[in-house]
Design a protein that fits this description.
Length: 102
């Protein structure tokens, strides 16, 4: 569970980076510059794939945590990671399903 929580945090950080990269590239495209935000394209692609896949990983993680809490078993992850992942899941749901500025 500790390893899974760390993977989830990494994916969530990639989600934040992917959203920021998208905003930077949209701003550059409006100025007429269509080159990528990061000069190393494989790195940018990896961040985007991990970031946009984070909603699935984060959803599964939060469902496992919810199951452990309902079964009254201890959750072997720090509380700040649980809170961070829950807040990012809410942000991801809003970003993917309710944000109209995409």
């Amino acid at each position: 569970m500790r390893f899974f929580s760390k993977i989830t945090v990494i994916c969530n950080l990639c989600f934040i980076a992917a959203v920021l990269l998208r905003r930077v590239e949209m701003a550059k495209a409006q100025q007429g510059n269509f080159s990528g935000a990061i000069p190393v394209q494989p790195l940018e692609s990896t961040i985007v794939v991990l970031g946009y896949g984070a909603i699935v990983v984060n959803f599964v993680f939060n469902m496992v945590v919810l199951a452990l809490l309902l079964l009254k078993k201890p959750v072997p992850a720090p509380k700040w990671i649980l809170l961070f992942n829950l807040l990012l899941l809410l942000l991801q749901v809003y970003y993917f399903f309710f944000d109209t500025s995409l």
